[in-house]
Write a structure and sequence with these properties.
five-stranded mixed β-sheet; about 300 residues; 10 helices; Nucleotidyltransferase, domain 5; three-stranded antiparallel β-sheet; alpha/beta
């Protein structure tokens, strides 16, 4: 109620968006030049002194060229961010009075806001590494939807996700085509500083990492969950339970095509779990740039 009351008009939304994007000094949405003129008129627009192009506060953001009012957008963003497991497109459509297809597209654009921007520096310290499979259990499917010869770590109906959890409780997720060493190791080497301590399970793809890292193994096949040195992957296993609950409890099903977007949502919420809803809302608008077009979303 407080969010809907505060963002009750377009002008308030625009002012908030300007402050979140640029702070006190507006910069060109095209060339990033710092000298910008404010144009007169009902809808607040700007003109760059360098490239002379006109733009608004929504230019280059997930809100650009949307027929949906900014008030509905802000309410939708708050609902998506404040619900730990997310909100379904069906439920959001009822809340803001749009069609389910529109709500589905809006939620994917909001997930684009949640996408954690690539960090140039590598992570170091104590890193837990593990992979999980999304797609549901074959035994739980009705007879006409069962997949033959699919069980456990099958790629026929499941998609693997690699996770790296550092000692600060920050997670990075990567949707991968398989869990072979040739797939996982390049991600590990690209993301983790050599010399770091890594903890994994006994999966054979991690063999050989001890050449560049201090590698500890927790042998889950022997019902070992804390090894003799006191290392564990339990924190990352707990994080996976949040991802699975989000998919099973709210979205029910995710396709391979869009799974990385749901992982972006999970990653953002997990890494901001200590923030209040208001702080998370403000933080999300710091990465509001990056328009997601419908043709790019549905492209094969």
């Amino acid at each position: 109620m407080q969010v809907s009351e505060y963002f009750s008009d377009r002008q308030t939304c625009i002012e908030y968006l300007i402050a979140a994007r640029w702070g006190e000094a507006v910069r060109c949405a095209f060339c990033n030049h710092d000298k910008v003129y404010t144009l007169t008129g009902k809808n607040k627009r700007f003109k760059c002194a360098k490239c002379l192009r006109h733009f608004s506060a929504t230019k280059g953001t997930v809100l650009e060229n949307s027929p949906i009012s900014l008030q509905k957008w802000f309410i939708s963003i708050y609902l998506s961010l404040s619900n730990k497991k997310g909100i379904s497109s069906v439920q959001l459509a009822k809340h803001i009075d749009v069609t389910q297809k529109t709500a589905w597209y809006m939620l994917h654009r909001i997930r684009a806001m949640m996408r954690i921007k690539a960090i140039n520096r590598k992570i170091s310290g104590l890193i837990q590494i593990d992979e999980t499979f999304c797609g549901g259990k074959n035994k739980n499917r009705p007879w006409h939807k069962k997949v033959k010869y699919s069980q456990g770590r099958s790629f026929k109906d499941k998609t693997p996700v690699l996770g790296l959890l550092d000692s600060n409780g920050q997670i990075r997720t990567f949707v991968v085509p398989d869990t072979k060493a040739i797939t996982l190791k390049p991600i590990i080497y690209k993301t983790i500083e050599k010399g770091s301590i890594i903890v994994t399970d006994e999966w054979k793809a991690y063999n050989g990492l001890s050449k560049d890292y201090t590698h500890f193994i927790v042998d889950h096949s022997r019902k070992q969950y804390v090894n003799e040195n006191g290392f564990t992957t339990n924190s990352l296993e707990g994080a996976w339970s949040h991802l699975k609950r989000m998919i099973i409890g709210v979205y029910h099903k995710t396709s391979r095509k869009h799974l990385h977007r749901y992982c972006d949502e999970f990653t953002f919420k997990y890494n901001t779990r200590t923030m209040s809803d208001t702080e998370r809302f403000d933080f999300a608008f710091q990465t509001v740039k990056g328009r997601l077009k419908h043709r790019d979303l549905v492209a094969a």
